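Supplementary Text 2. Reproducibility record for the structural model of the 503-residue chain.

All settings were left at their defaults, and a single model was retained for analysis rather than an ensemble. We include the record here because the model underlies the residue-level annotations in Supplementary Table 4.
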Amino acid sequence: MKLPASRVSQLLFLGLFLFLFIITDYRGKDEITVAVNSFFRANPLVLASYVLAVKGFTFLLLPALIMAVCTLLLGRFFFGWICPLGTVIDLVTHRIPKSSPIRFLKSSFKYYLLFTLLATALFSVNLSGVLDPIAILIRALTLFFYPLVGYVARAGWSGLYQVAGEERDTVAFLYDFLRDYVLPFRETFYPLAFLSLAVFLFILALERFERRNWCRNICPLGTLLGLLGRFSLFRRLPGRICKDCGDCRSHCPSAFDEEMLQTDNCIRCMQCRVQCRFGRVEFPLRWKTLFRPVKEGQGQPVMSKRVFLVSLVSGFFLSRLFSFRHPEKDHRLLRPPGVKDEDDFLKKCVRCGECMKVCLRSALYPDFTRAGVTGLFMPVIIPRLGYCEYNCTLCGQVCPTGAIPRLPLGQKQKSIIGTAVIDKNICLPYAKKLNCIVCEEHCPIPEKAIRFETVEDIDHKGKKVTLKRPYIVDELCNGCGICENKCPLEGRSAVEVFAGKKG
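Retained model, structure tokens:
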């Protein structure tokens, strides 16, 4: 059996994707020169949503523009040659028994979904990252699989000592290699990990009903590239199943419905050409067909007035619904350093989770409700769980869209995340008349944003004591959250960081 070049390309790009994913982590260096964000920067759906939401362009997404132009010329090749999620689907689909397709997905559902997402972005609420295939795969890896692999590997290495004792050291070099180059820097089990896993497994479960079901009938990126690919210089011939042979239908992963080729779904994988027994299948260069409309039956109805109007109205109402944020939660909504405007951040963030993956102190977590529905999977800082490392700029380095700006270290250190506030009702020197200097000790700012005033007081036993009572120098505090994280009190911290003026 001949292996098509497209399958070789798929495996190579999947390997590249996993390699970039693994090295997008802290490996003892403060610089990440190459990251998996390259896949997002070549993503036309990210580009389209960004431009509509921000009403502008960033050169960070120039590769996505190039990918869109290539799709116009070559067709929807991204999913047949590059897409890592598509490759994963292809690797498992033959192991899943098939039943009847889901009928409502065979309608114009994917077009309604795509144009609704784009319309929502037009009204300044960018939700495309929720359903972007690359974001879905990275979130599943970042939030669930990668921490699990790290935990199992380290637990297994520790358990091996119980079995082999010091003989374990004979294979220590293998573990050292994994620890330094493959395993995550730290295993953080994130909230929404199981939701990310459930979405990923749902996409695989769709193969029960049809090959490449997600790619054919739901994927917004696939739908967008399918629309661009309608103008491709290359068209498959013949456009129908040959009467004396139906092999194309069994070999094609995505494009044939009944007897007719659906041009919007053709991923240019060349399986049909490689497997054709009669050598009939061709993809000729046809200059005259560049702007020729697709013939009836060769592609599903696309830009009907109904699709456009319903999507536009749906996008408007979704943008209004999802933009609601509970006012009482805004004061605890802490974003990564450098983020100055919440609305601008919501427009740019693609919800990829890369910033969470590289966060040295596990400060960043995927949001669920703090920023409303529109903030789902976006990074928030939860100081009680982790804090922003003073000497770290990794999150800005891996952000594919500039939602988290890439700042020089000195500028990042002065960037305001929030402001710490001391609750005197539970702080030990105030409430219990006991000295505690933990918050001041850990404050990383050279001038110390937490200082003490020395006072004389009477403790609960009536004895005179000298206390060091902490107070916050608001002008120096950057809201890194280390004071809240390190506070020795159980449960709620005596010092908390609240969102304030950004800078």
